[in-house]
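stage 2 :: seqdesign
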């Protein structure tokens, strides 16, 4: 289960999650991880990656024809050529003494911020996003941290869909926010709706307002209002995409309640339907002052390790975001900013990757049911399919382990994305090569009787 450090009920002894005190004769036993730090769960996908790596190192992968990577949420291709050229040019200029590649202003270099603003005009027809609204960040991860700290106080209630990207919850909880998990399923394409949100909150008020729950025997206080909603379209882990009307309805729900609407758009431009994904900046109803839009160069632009993303910040948060960036990160990596500016001109190269993802998606949607995965998410965008395996098992962790050991196919249990129901789901990623995806489907079908044993 791995070691964790937790304060004991009495004293401050480091303990296992099971409650057993860890021996630490050489350490001051008062020096342990904070409760906040120790309670942050690991990312299960990294454990799958390690297990696959260990099989490769030991040679065990040879018995299953090598590892087929359907677990990793990163493109199998590197940064586009023009981005690499820009990075090379920056290094050469630094070698000639023409630049130091040192700190930039906190919000990012002007050419990149201006190019991001132009991106909203060119792709979405949004004319009123200017460079002053853009903060360039160290990947979308820093954008989430900065925006959450800027928008929410400890104790604020923030709603997220479940299943969803686990780092939303983990960052918010580490910051002392209360996460309100809204269960979603295939009936709403694994996306929240205003009706779901209203029904959940109404049921919550009924539960808390019935009396008898307080220390003095009286009714419990009403739950605090929702301070923010986080939405991802296309989403991780399901790949589902909100329609324009659905996205605008959620934005309006937040606007009416004075709540922040955080729109995670990092999988934009990886879409398979006739209509492109909609940005929250397109909303036609009223001001966009409640919308915080986050994007990244990691996914469509294939620049995961470059750690560069951005946030379009509403006016009321700009001073706070600037100050937080100055104190927490200073600026996004300078060379990555120059490369990212050039990446906007690489669509001819990048759309070919999306074409490959589209082929891979079709292979999985056709092939996985033949291996017994009959209940699949619609996967209209991103590069994930979320499979309901409740008819096979109630332990998707064990199922993924058996699949890896018997077929060499690495996939991820749903527990990262849904703490309550994740043991009944598995996520497949399809951003690797078409050959890898084809072989993964073939071996899953061929060895189905082996990996389903014990389910």
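stage 2 :: out
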């Amino acid at each position: 289960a791995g070691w964790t450090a937790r304060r004991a009920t009495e004293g401050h002894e480091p303990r296992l999650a099971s409650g057993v005190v860890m021996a630490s004769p050489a350490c001051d036993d008062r020096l342990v991880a904070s409760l906040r730090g120790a309670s942050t769960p690991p990312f299960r996908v990294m454990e799958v990656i390690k297990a696959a790596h260990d099989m490769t190192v030991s040679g065990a992968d040879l018995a299953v024809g090598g590892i087929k990577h359907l677990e990793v949420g990163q493109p199998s291709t590197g940064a586009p050529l023009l981005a690499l050229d820009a990075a090379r040019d920056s290094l050469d200029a630094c070698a000639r003494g023409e630049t130091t590649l040192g700190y930039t202003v906190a919000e990012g270099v002007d050419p990149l911020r201006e190019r991001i603003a132009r991106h909203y005009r060119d792709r979405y027809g949004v004319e009123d996003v200017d460079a002053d609204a853009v903060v360039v960040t160290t990947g979308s991860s820093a954008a989430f941290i900065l925006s959450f700290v800027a928008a929410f106080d400890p104790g604020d209630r923030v709603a997220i869909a479940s299943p969803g990207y686990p780092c939303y919850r983990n960052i918010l909880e580490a910051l002392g926010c209360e996460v309100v998990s809204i269960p979603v399923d295939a009936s709403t394409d694994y996306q929240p709706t205003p009706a779901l949100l209203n029904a959940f909150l109404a049921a919550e008020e009924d539960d808390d307002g019935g009396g008898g729950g307080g220390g003095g025997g009286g009714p419990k206080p009403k739950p605090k209002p929702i301070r923010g909603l986080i939405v991802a379209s296309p989403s991780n882990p399901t790949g589902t995409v909100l329609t324009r009307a659905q996205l605008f309805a959620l934005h309006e729900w937040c606007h009416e309640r004075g709540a922040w609407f955080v729109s995670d758009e990092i999988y934009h431009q990886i879409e398979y339907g006739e209509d492109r994904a909609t940005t929250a900046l397109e909303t036609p109803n009223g001001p966009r002052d409640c919308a915080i839009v986050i994007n990244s160069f990691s996914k469509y632009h294939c620049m995961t390790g470059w750690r560069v993303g951005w946030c379009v910040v509403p006016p009321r948060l700009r001073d706070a975001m600037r100050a937080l960036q100055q104190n927490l990160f200073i600026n996004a990596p300078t060379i990555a900013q120059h490369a990212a500016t050039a990446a906007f001109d690489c669509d001819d190269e990048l759309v070919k990757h999306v074409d490959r993802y589209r082929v891979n998606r079709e292979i999985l949607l056709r092939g996985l049911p033949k291996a017994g995965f009959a209940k699949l998410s619609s996967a209209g965008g991103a590069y994930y399919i979320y499979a309901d395996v409740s008819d096979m098992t109630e332990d998707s962790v064990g199922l993924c382990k058996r699949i890896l050991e018997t077929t060499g196919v690495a996939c991820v249990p749903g527990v990262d994305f849904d703490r309550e129901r994740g043991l009944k789901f598995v996520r497949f990623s399809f951003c690797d090569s078409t050959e890898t995806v084809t072989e993964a489907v073939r071996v899953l079908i061929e060895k189905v009787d082996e990996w389903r044993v014990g389910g």
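stage 3 :: structure notes
- DSSP finds 14 helices and 13 strands in the chain.
- Residues 203 and 379 are 30 Å apart (CA to CA).
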